[in-house]
Amino acid sequence: MPKQSPKKSQSFWFILDNYVHVSVRGKSALFYNSLTGKILEYRDCETVIRLVKRLRSPGNLQVVGLTGKELANPGVSRFVKDMRTFFMGDLIDAALTRGKPMQMAPYPNIQQDVEVIKKSTRGSAAVGDRMMKYAAEVSIYINSACGLDCGLCGSAHRQFLCCTRGRNTRAELEPRSVKNLLQQLQGSSLARLNILGGDIFKFSQWEQLPEILNAPALPAEKFFYTHYLNLAGQEKKIAQFPAGSFSLKIVVPFPVKTRQWEEIIGAPAVNRPGTHFLFIIAGEADSDAAEELIARHRLENHSFYPFFNGRNREFFRQAVFVDKQDLEEARPTMTEILARQCINPLHFGTLTILSNGHIHADVNAPRLGTLAGDSIYDMVYKEMYRGSSWRRTRKKATPCRRCTFNALCPPLSNYEYALGQNNLCHIWENSL
Fold it and tell me: What is the distance between the alpha carbons of residues 404 and 412, in angstroms, rounded to a whole number?
């Protein structure tokens, strides 16, 4: 505010900075400074809501005129003072400017491509090449056979990338189908190729994989996923792939079988560059056990994957659910916020091919097509048009769509499917 109380006839420009995210739901408004992480909330303040609606009008671009009389309103005065105190906006004497200040409003380009798809009358043929730039990650379950009987099967792969034994343990993909798939992906933006299965080493035509996966026209990083118990005795199969041609992702659920673990932990295959341990955590005891293994073996590359087993909801409430402080510490950028409002960054550009040949944008989403009957162009087109996974956002989900924090929260993941609720947080329950 000006050092002296403004005259009622005086005019000002109030500018809300374009790095500030604004969200209004009903009688509540939220302001987030993407540079500092500061969050301000206003509830049941009609004067602020009216001013925010003016600021967000397309013609105003977050710049509005205010009179001295308006600034004399306690609600407006407090709001303007808050915005200036926390570096979210400023107030300029209109007499010092030659006209209304201008600023650019950011706009996500993805919206333009979605509109092109929906207006196209020729289907994927018209926009296929344009859409293939969005195919960034593909996961292929080459088989479903596995001799293990662990507690992960059937559910863990629906929460995160993980091996799984299918109902039909004889199901596996034909090498020529995999080769055809990868040929379609040449020239796309594919950056990551994940090879999974039940036990991938039981794939009956393993010897054909090196030539198919190491094609020069497919420069994507490649990752092989395997349960640690399936690694024993697989040195020869792993050695068929040149060093550096793939990275090994080793799935480690608890409790660990000590003898088998000690056998594989020193194996050459496990000590290849890029090997990464995925510790599956269902509770605090698992976390402690993982930390002990990491310290004992000096494991540098590792991640913790929380696993919902149907009996550990309280563990998820404590370890996974987010609160306001988590969001302030995460400090999402404006680019991330804009992306979250129109796409799901966790799933966007991903496709999964199961061992039965079914293609999904996400394993929890409806099938897009089949490897035998559909092209990848068609699958990308269909998912961009329908958006059941790639464009599954919190602003469309219940109850998140009614919460002012929805664009700040992490994107919807597969944990929401597993737990049967979208608000994995301690925010919505406190905002009612």
Answer: 16
Same domain, 81 and 125: no
pLDDT in tens, the chain (432 residues): 555 566 656 899 999 999 999 999 988 999 999 999 999 999 988 999 999 999 988 888 899 999 999 999 999 999 999 999 999 999 999 888 888 888 876 666 665 566 555 665 555 554 555 667 788 999 999 999 999 989 899 899 999 999 999 787 789 999 999 999 999 998 788 999 999 999 999 999 999 999 999 887 788 999 999 999 999 999 999 999 988 889 999 999 999 999 999 999 988 888 888 999 999 999 999 999 999 999 999 999 999 999 999 999 999 999 999 999 999 999 999 999 999 988 999 999 999 999 999 999 999 999 999 999 999 888 988 898 877 899 999 999 999 999 999 999 999 999 999 999 999 999 975 554
Residue with tokens 């020529």: 176
**Separation CA 375–CA 389 (nearest Å):** 19
Same domain, 85 and 125: no
Q: Domain tally for the chain?
A: 2
Q: Are residues 364 and 286 in the same domain?
A: yes
Q: In this structure, are 171 and 288 located in the same domain?
A: yes
Strands 63-67 and 89-93, sheet pairing: unpaired
Same structural domain, 244 and 306: yes
Q: List, in sequence order, every residue forming a beta bridge with 12; answer none if it has no partner.
A: 66, 93
**What residues have CB less than 8 Å from 374, skipping those under 6 apart?**
359, 368
pTM: 0.90
- Domain residues for the domain of 65 are 11-96
Please compute Rg for the chain using Cα positions. 26
Nearest Cα to Cα of residue 395 among 411, 383, 384, 382: 411
Within 8 A by CB and 6+ apart from 95, the residues are 10, 11
Residue that is last in its domain, among 96, 130, 159: 96
> What is the C-alpha to C-alpha distance for residues 172 and 371, in angstroms, rounded to an integer?
12
Q: Does residue 286 form part of some domain? A: yes
Q: Where are the beta strands (DSSP E) in 275-324?
A: 276-281, 302-306
